[in-house]
Amino acid sequence: MLHPFLPVRFERISAEESRERCRRLLENFRLRRTVREFDTEAVPDGLIDTAIEVAGTAPSGANRQPWKFVVVRDPEVRRRIREAAEAEEREFYERRATPEWLADLAPLGTDWRKPFLESAPCVIAVFRIDYEPARLADGTERKHKNYYVGESVGIAVGFLLAALHVAGLATLTHTPSPMQFLREVLGRPKHEQPYMLIVAGYPAAGARVPDLTKKRLDEIRETV
User: What pLDDT, on the 0 to 100 scale, is given for residue 182?
Assistant: First the structure.
């Protein structure tokens, strides 16, 4: 059965306004940086919730919206996440990472220590949902599959990072591997799989970031 269809709501603007809006957005996003030193100042709940609502507007396969965002503010839970993440990261840096990978990471000054998971006021754990469990009338359970889950959650995370930046917050994305400890620490059901940790807050006084450059337009765009 088809959903009811509605007229599309679309604002047609001039080419000049289009270019100006895009230029302002580019200038804003050129200021976005991954921050590893966070102030302990709390972030308003409403701010995080609105940013997650923005993420929830992302397109997804068959509109299944296969994501869950768990906002972690409890200091004890953040401490447990840090301890588990650092255990995996230490194993990575000391045993699993290839020499080439470590060489690429070296200029960024990162290592297995992840204090930001505990010092920042807010950590958002993103979970991907590959299927939704459904219980049938006879008591058995079936799995309602979701589609293009990785692509859908990736787009939603992009929306979330953009919304947090526009809201004036600094962020950091963290993907310790493996991440199954997140399901245990946060008590998530088996059909939710850890996808990413997003640290959000205000930069600490004196916070510094590497002096990096992004690829030029002619390096990332081709026209056919």
Answer: 97
